[in-house]
Design a protein that fits this description.
One of its GO terms (molecular function) is metal ion binding. It comes from Leptospira interrogans serovar Pyrogenes str. L0374. By secondary structure, the chain is of the alpha+beta class. It has two domains: about 150 residues, Cytochrome Bc1 Complex, Chain A, domain 1, CATH 3.30.830; about 180 residues, Cytochrome Bc1 Complex, Chain A, domain 1. It is about 45% helix and about 15% strand. It is built from 14 helices and seven strands. A five-stranded mixed beta sheet has the order 3-7-4-6-5, sandwiched between helices. A two-stranded antiparallel ribbon has the order 1-2.
């Protein structure tokens, strides 16, 4: 370990970017994609192209085991030592069938990470870091022809591999209510989720409306009911598209309970609000306000070059055309109060539901 440090300059790429005005050099991995991003002055695009194309053509994993240990420690901190991390892992494991990619945690399991060696990682890189899977999005004050020339010059000769097919999956859900319980010395919490289709299915836009209606800010129905009125929770939020968008996914409701709140009471209060959507139409004024709220969030995100590049590349990669982003706005605009009622009746049913709850150990347990 000490010997290799004599031959390695850690974070050299970050240093080069910083010298050339780069900021925000980062990466993330979701259930659907791995994304690398950087903000640079427009006249430094070629430096980025040279560095990143070389990384793809000639990957040298010099600090592999150091980085693997970092990931292992990150898993311990984010999952094993946090009640919500464990609960969410158990929740997705219960919600999706055996072999479904959304059942697997993005960070991996400790038992697998500990035995992941360099050769296996190189094979994975060769199979999946393929130009046929790659999308580059460049946003900024750029000359199109010059930009295209730079990209073709540096990335045009990337060798295509034998493309590994993505794992096929069938839509989960409507196969019985599922329940999982976790005991952990953390704040009591609950996740309630329902299977749903992913974008571009038109019902996905309806779930975006329901998401905002229930839990967006202090005006959200669940926020008012659970936190302000009944005072049984300290936090609630919804996630439409949990945990990803490539396959059919979940509409999830995450609740952090107050310490002495009854779990069943919290569940019943949530169900009451969901049932209201089945029996009472939301008003046109309420729907108009929610649509404007969602659209405003979209526009604010697209006003940032980095976020716009992120969204464009994601839509191109997942749906084959970045213009699907515009279709999403159009779908949202067509949602009616009757659509909200129809979707609530169809999906918010016990046979399509997964519930996961976390409780701290009983007092005196283990003593």
């Amino acid at each position: 370990m000490e010997l290799h440090r004599k031959f390695v300059i850690s974070n050299e790429d970050n240093y080069i970017y910083s010298k050339n005005g780069g900021v925000g050099f980062n990466a993330y991995t979701s259930n659907d994609v791995t994304n690398y991003q950087i903000l640079l002055p427009a006249n430094r695009l070629e430096i980025w192209a040279k560095l990143e194309s070389d990384r793809l053509k000639n990957p040298i994993l010099r600090e592999y085991y150091t980085e693997r240990d970092v990931v292992l420690e990150e898993r311990r901190m984010r999952v094993e030592n946090r009640g919500l991390g464990i609960l969410r892992e158990k929740y997705l494991d219960a919600a999706f069938p055996e072999g479904h990619p959304y059942r697997m945690p993005v960070i991996g399991y400790e038992k697998n990470l500990g035995f992941l060696d360099l050769e296996k990682t190189k094979t994975f890189f060769k199979n999946y870091y393929d130009p046929q899977r790659m999308v580059i999005a460049v946003v900024g004050s750029l000359d199109f022809d010059k930009t295209e020339k730079i990209l073709r010059n540096y990335f045009g000769d990337l060798k295509k591999g034998s493309l590994q097919p993505l794992k096929k999956t069938t839509q989960a859900g409507f196969n019985g209510s599922k329940f999982v319980s976790v005991v952990h010395p953390s704040t009591p919490s609950k996740i309630i989720g329902f299977h749903k289709p992913a974008f571009p299915h038109p019902d996905d836009a309806v779930f975006s409306i329901i998401d905002t209606l229930l839990a967006e800010g202090e005006s959200g129905r669940l926020y008012k009911k659970l936190i302000l009125e009944k005072q049984v929770a300290q936090g609630v939020y919804c996630w439409n598209g949990d945990p990803g968008d490539r396959f059919s996914n979940l509409f999830s409701i995450y609740i952090t309970n107050n310490q002495n709140a009854d779990q069943k009471k919290v569940e019943n209060l949530v169900q009451e609000e969901l049932d209201k959507l089945k029996t009472e139409l939301i008003t046109s004024e309420e729907l108009f306000r929610i649509k404007n709220q969602i659209l405003g969030g979209y526009l604010r995100a697209l006003d940032d070059n980095g976020k716009l590049a992120d969204v464009l590349s994601l839509y191109q990669l997942l749906y084959g055309d970045w213009r699907e982003l515009l279709r999403g706005y159009e779908e949202l605009d067509t949602v009616t109060p009757e659509d909200v009622q129809r979707v609530a009746k169809k999906y918010f049913v016990p046979e399509n539901r997964t519930i996961a709850e976390l409780n701290p150990p009983a007092k005196g347990a283990g003593n």
